[in-house]
Structures are given as structure tokens and as C-alpha cells.
Amino acid sequence: MGGRVVLGVSGGIAAYKAVEILRELQRAGCPVRVVMTHHATEFVHPRTFAVLSGHPVEVGQFEGPAGPGVDHVERSRWADLFLVAPATADVLAKMAAGIADDALTTYHLAHRRAVAVAPAMNEFMWRHPATRESLRRLEARGVAVIPPDGGPLACGDSGEGRLAAVARIVDSALGLLPMRGALAGLRILVTAGPTREPVDAVRVLTNRSSGRMGVALAAAARRMGAEVVLLHGPMAVPVPPGVEAVRFETAAELEGLLAQHAPGADAILHAAAVADFRPVRAAEGKLDRREGGAALELEPVPDLAAGIGVLEDRPYLVVFAAEIGEDRERARAKMAAKGADAVVLNDVAAPGTGMEAAENAVVVMTARGEETVVPRAAKETVAREILLALSGELLARRGKEDGDGA
Ligand SMILES: Cc1cc2nc3c(=O)[nH]c(=O)nc-3n(C[C@H](O)[C@H](O)[C@H](O)COP(=O)(O)O)c2cc1C
């Protein structure tokens, strides 16, 4: 049996798609109960959800005969995941603010495990700073946001804001359920952050990587049930809970750590921004400007990813291509040159995304030719989508190993 889900349905035109989400979750073996906002009942009658879920649907909190139970508290003991789909701009704002004035929003505060929201709304509502702020606050609290798709909207406009495809919502939900942890049993090695190559006793050559993307990947893999080791350089963000972390400074140190940890891993997500060049030798002491200009002689750093790519029995290798412009051919060539199984391409020149930003937008490409576009979202959300896009191949690898061992 899958994990138990409370499905929250709010009052948008996409409410009818919640019926299909309910059915797909049930097909995946998850028992589902439903709470709706009053406005959602303008779009779909609660009876549809009651019949399909086999349970009464809660809308207001004070309707019907006065019973002894406190429904939202009882449900919160029962559920592994609270999934709000579709989530209106209104319900996102209420959740962000902690308002609890109906069954759905009260349940949100009583719920104690994973929460996910699948927003759906008109593009202007989606882009409104108030909605962006709600999402930021929810994401900062660990709520998984399943980003909407672009395309034609029910209001006649076209743009971002259309509820994500049912399959994507259900995949995301399943990935968040502990009992079905999509990556359970896998040991995943993540590298994150910049390297620092010494120039002299106090100065270093480094880059703008914040480590955010790698940390988000480590956290997402952990939440999806994997055992995670994070090899990280100096980062602007903390190591996530439940992750074993080992710190490096230079590319040479990271190389040593990879040699140590790679053999036991099922997969390596190589998101660290490793120096391409380093000073041939660090100056002794501190370079003194009174001695005039100093020339820095640089040598190329060995390609660490390519080093893993040629290992015998190597883990599934995912490399990251930070490109100026979304050049898929270049990213593919990089994947091939490194012998990697997948490449995550991100356009570091796109406004608001990339190295130091809190958001990212990527294309995940596998050596087998599959491509998944992950639209712009918080790095935490993008990390989960990357893992979902690769989970089939990752698990196939585990299956193969299990088979080999039998
Ligand atoms: C026909 C119609 C369609 C709507 N579709 C959406 C929608 O897709 N997303 C959204 O955020 N609001 C939508 N709204 C506005 C919400 O219904 C409105 O903000 C309402 O207060 C939301 O209530 P709830 O969040 O409690 O369900 C729609 C309104 C109407 C009349």
C-alpha cells in the first residue's frame, strides 16, 4: 500500500483535474481523502470526491450534525502527505500567512508531514509579486511546489499558470511519500559549491557558485529516501539535515574524496563548480604589492567528471553544464566527452537564474536521448524535478545491481 494522502482542492477552473489526480494516486496504491474550499464546490460537487475516495468530504468545519470528533486533527494523524491541487492564488496566500478559516486551511496547520502544492491560475496572477511572495514563503518552510506548465489557459490567455500535467503531480506526490520513497535504497553522492585554489597564503582563485543547487539536490534525494553523501566546498547555504557532509577546498581534495566515495555510490550528481585552472604553484607567504605586479601562471585542472566516467563499474553519473545561452548541442557534447549518463543544462546568463540566484531553470538530457524541460522555479523545486526526471534510470540501475547479485 502507498502512503496516505489528503488531497486539498481549491476553487480554480482546474478543480476538475483533481478527480483524475485522486484516481491516479489510488491506482498507485495510495488511500486518499479530500478536503475542499467552498469555492471549489462551485466547480466540482463534493459528492464526486466522496464517492471516489470512499470518505466524506470536508468543506466548512461547522456544517452537518455536531459530532464529537475534531476532523482536521484526526486526519493529520492519518496522512503522510497533504497535496493541494489545484492551489489557487488565494489558497497559497492563506497557507503562506497561516490563515485557518475553512477545512482546507485549518487542515494545513494541523498536518505534520510533507506538504505539496500544485498552483494553477491566470498568468498575471501567477506572476503577481503577492503570489511570488506566497510561494517563496511556502518553499522556505519546506513545502514542495509543483510548478505549473505554460500553454493555453482557460481564461483565453496563453502563458505560465496552467496546472502541471496530472502525471507530473502524481509523480511528485509519490516522491514525497516516505513509504514509497522513490529513491529508497540508493546511495547518492552529491558534489556542491566552488573550489578554492590558493594563489598565496591568504588569496584564492574561486568562482561564484553558492552551492545552492547541489544542496537542494542533496536535500531532495534525502527526502526521496536515498542515503546521501554531500562533498562540498565553501557554501552560502547550510548542509541539509540527514545528509553526511564532507568539506573540500581545492579540486585536488575533491578528487581524493571522489576516489574514496564514488565506488560505494549508485549515482553521482556532480554539481560542484570545479576550477578549470589553478595556479601552478602558490606563492609563499603573502604577495606584496610594493614589489610591483605579479604574473599568475595557471595550469588546467584535471577533468574530475571525466575521471569518474571512465571508472569500471562506475556509478550513474550526472554532470551539470552551466552555459551562456541554452545550447543543447554543447551540453550533449559535454555529456559524451565526460562519459556521463545525463547532463543538466542551465543557462547561467538567463536573468534571475543560475549560479548565485535562488531560482533555476534547466533542461535534463540523458545519454539515451530523453529530454525534460524544468521551468524556472526555486532551486529546491528544480532539484526534485531533476531527480524525478532521472528516477527511472536510477532505479533501473539499482534493479540491475540487485539482479547481478542474485
Ligand atoms: C470561472 C472562474 C475560474 C477561476 N479560476 C481560478 C484559477 O484557476 N486559479 C485561481 O487562483 N483563481 C481562480 N479563480 C478565482 C478564485 O475562484 C477566487 O480567488 C476564490 O476566492 C478562490 O477561493 P479558494 O481559494 O478558497 O478556493 C477563478 C474564478 C472564477 C469565477
The CATH topology annotation of the largest domain reads as Rossmann fold
- Please report the first level of CATH classification, the CATH class of the largest domain: Alpha Beta
Number of DSSP helices? Answer: 13
The CATH homologous superfamily of the largest domain is called CoaB-like
Structural domains: how many? 2
CATH architecture descriptor name of the largest domain? 3-Layer(aba) Sandwich
**Global structural class:** alpha/beta
The amount of beta strand, in percent, is 15-25%
Helical content stands at: 25-40%
Biggest sheet descriptor = 8 strands, mixed
From the N-terminal CA to the C-terminal CA, the straight-line distance is 26 Å
Bound molecules: flavin mononucleotide
Radius of gyration, Cα only, in angstroms?
A: 24 Å
Q: Largest beta sheet: what is the strand line-up? A: 10-9-6-11-14-15-16-17
The rough form would be described as elongated
* Residue-averaged pLDDT: 89
Number of strands: 17
What is the string of SSEs from the N terminus onward? EHEHHEHHEHHEHEEEHEEHEEEHEHEEEH
Contiguous runs where pLDDT drops below 50 for at least 5 residues: 402-406
Word description of this protein:
The chain is α/β, with parallel strands linked by helices and 406 residues long. It folds into 2 domains: 5-180, Rossmann fold; 187-405, CoaB-like (Rossmann fold). It contains 13 helices and 17 strands. It has helices spanning 17-27, 46-53, 71-78, 89-97, 103-110, 123-127, 129-140, 166-176, 212-223, 251-261, 304-309, 328-338, 379-405, and strands at residues 5-9, 32-36, 81-87, 114-119, 144-145, 187-192, 197-198, 204-205, 227-232, 244-247, 267-270, 277-279, 298-300, 316-323, 342-347, 359-366, 371-378. Strands 10-9-6-11-14-15-16-17 form an 8-stranded mixed sheet, sandwiched between helices. Helix 1 (17-27) packs across helix 8. The longest helix is centred in the last third of the chain and has 27 residues, at 379-405. The chain is elongated. The model is unreliable at 402-406 (pLDDT under 50). Flavin mononucleotide binds next to helix 4. Flavin mononucleotide (FMN) binds at residues 10-14, 37, 39-40, 88-91, 120-121, 125.
